[in-house]
């Protein structure tokens, strides 16, 4: 069984994924796959061709913070980056869930925005209050403007909740989230 996991930025998708992993699920993180693709020699070459050496850190690897500032400020640059990374991420994601003897969770922040719902047994959304969400993102080092820009690029959280089959509410502590994941898993058939 392959489950799609989504939610808004700062809602706790990674924390939920970690709970699934602790309980034996194979977790595939689309953002992690995107980082892997971004750091490939082919991608670095295309990044340099488009943006020059400014997009690279002193180690020669893509400077993700610089790139994020660039693409979240200009939709054409975001389209370029997605065109560069998304096809390979999709291929890697598909190959990561081939083992039918295990349950899989695929964490995709833009699952609905990019129309990637096909192939999942059901969709889980991790949600929380706006106040908690913004506080978490500030703690991660994002500015208030960066937070607002990134939230505005995503579908409204309320719409993601409506479109999902299961919602995990993550305003509490980790043990509350873990209890929700455990209850959900308890209702699933064995792989």
Give an overview of the whole structure.
The protein folds into 2 domains: 1-25 and 102-191, P-loop containing nucleotide triphosphate hydrolases (Rossmann fold, 3-Layer(aba) Sandwich); 33-91, no CATH class. 53% of the residues lie in helices and 13% in strands. The protein has helices at residues 13-22, 30-38, 41-51, 64-73, 75-96, 130-139, 144-153, 157-163, 174-186; strands spanning 2-7, 26-29, 104-107, 122-127, 166-169. The protein has a 5-stranded parallel beta sheet with strand order 2-3-1-4-5, with helices on both faces. The longest helix has 22 residues, at 75-96. The radius of gyration is 17 Å and the shape is globular.
Salient structural properties:
single chain, 191 residues, Rossmann fold, five-stranded parallel beta sheet, 5 strands
The portion of residues forming beta strands comes to: 5-15%
**Sequence of strands across the biggest β-sheet:** 2-3-1-4-5
Mean pLDDT: 94
Shape: globular
CATH class of the largest domain: Alpha Beta
Most strands sheet: 5 strands, parallel
The percent of residues in helical segments reads 40-55%
The CATH topology of the largest domain, please? Rossmann fold
Q: Can you tell me the CATH superfamily of the largest domain?
A: P-loop containing nucleotide triphosphate hydrolases
Structural class: alpha/beta
Number of strands: 5
Q: How many DSSP H or I helices?
A: 9
Contiguous low-pLDDT stretches (5 residues minimum) are: none
CATH architecture of the largest domain: 3-Layer(aba) Sandwich
Total domain count = 2
- Overall radius of gyration: 17 Å
- How far the N terminus sits from the C terminus, by CA atoms, comes to 7 Å
